[in-house]
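Give me the fold.
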Amino acid sequence: MQSPLIIAFVTVLSLLNGTPQVPQDPPTAPQGALQESVPATGRDYFLFTKALKSLRQGQLTSLVTMDIKGEGLAVVLKGQISLTHKTSGAYISELSVLPPLGGKPKRYKVTHDGKTTWVQDIGAGTYALQKVTEENEFLVRGLLTGLAKTALEKLEPSQLKFLDAPEPAPELAVELEKAVKQGDSDIKVRDETLEGKNYRVYDLKPGKEKGVISIYVTSGHRPERLSMLLDQDKLKIKFTEVVSSLIPTIPEKTSFRFVPTRSLKKVKKIDLGNY
């Protein structure tokens, strides 16, 4: 029988596809009455896709929180992610995970050069060659980057190029709307203010699941927050990702190959995210 954590991990993937610091609680602030969402226009689809493009490559630091509640169950898992990634698929992820039952944060480093993946358990001084599984990928690369990858891989190179324009050509807006809807997802939009900052919020409601995904985008087309509420297998699941830093460039001489030092011990497998 699958655990609630595994069920939640698989569910989120079905919808989305420096030194780490100890995870801290995401900022909270009072908010006013939510504006009712309205169906997105072609321009909204353009602006939404334009915002996601900033997540294709660069450096991202964010805090991911998963809160699961059910009958006799209350679990909170937090992970702070520092990700450097390329459009080719290569990435380096440093993460600090606070286990749901408490205790010291567990620190990992995951390096992927496009073919091989190295997982390092920093606290244990071990490393392994292994794939990142579906159950823990969102802890390694975050939720927003997974959403961006799923949405943008449907677009042609010419469409991606035209996203740099301040406004969409009418035919491009229509094409983008069709591309996003290929995933059986409709988008609604609304405005919301959090911590004194105004956001354009894009609410996605996938057709195959009971729930909604909300992406908060600034006026500068910067995606800063994702919130996802799900009702799955008698569980109430809430995922949140809050972005603290988003830089579109990669430092020079960044290597996406892991070279172990003599002090590290090679093991067959590291249970990344097995809590």
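The chain is about 20% helix and 40% strand.
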